[in-house]
Amino acid sequence: MGDFVDETYKRVEEIINYKRLNIRSFEEIIQVSNNSIGTAIRRKSSFKSNVLNKILNSFPEINPTWLLTGKGEMSLAISGEPPLVYDISDIDSRIKDNLLHLLQEDEEVQEVIAVKVSEVLKK
């Protein structure tokens, strides 16, 4: 078995390029100090686990196995695994629709609302 060579710096650079970011904006997104990522890439250094965790937390679509080992695909979505980020842009609309449906269709809910409305009107 050969010696392990840590080349996570190459994969981090690949993420930066894939996301079309510069090193500074990448550092801001993952919340690390200025020039820490750029310096590590230039020196071909390994990253501490806290930096790798920040990358994975900031970019949940990145495959952790790929980042750590280079095996598999960069993106979880490409590898067939479900995405870790969900579109909730229409969540308010869906909640309102479900509430309206519940109010219109559920007799028990209608009865409770009728009682509460009559209580309010009696005050």
Q: Any overview of this molecule?
A:
It is a single chain. By secondary structure, the protein is mainly α. The chain has two domains: 8-69, 434 Repressor (Amino-terminal Domain), CATH 1.10.260; 91-122. Helix content is 60%, strand content 0%. It has seven helices and no strands. The chain has helices spanning 8-18, 23-30, 36-43, 49-58, 64-69, 91-105, 107-122. The protein is elongated. The termini are far apart.
Query: What radius of gyration results from the CA coordinates?
Result: 25 Å
Main sheet makeup? none
The CATH architecture designation of the largest domain is Orthogonal Bundle
How helix-rich are the residues, as a percent range? 55-70%
The backbone outline, from C-alpha atoms, is elongated
In the CATH scheme, what's the topology name of the largest domain? 434 Repressor (Amino-terminal Domain)
Distance from first to last alpha carbon: 82 Å
By DSSP, the count of extended strands is 0
Low-confidence runs of at least 5 consecutive residues: none
Give the integer mean of the pLDDT values.
80
Number of domains: 2
Structural class, judged by helices and strands?
A: mainly alpha
Report strand %.
under 5%
CATH class of the largest domain: Mainly Alpha
Number of helices: 7
Task: Note the run of SSEs as H and E.
Answer: HHHHHHH
InterPro entries: Lambda_DNA-bd_dom_sf
Protein name: Transcriptional regulator
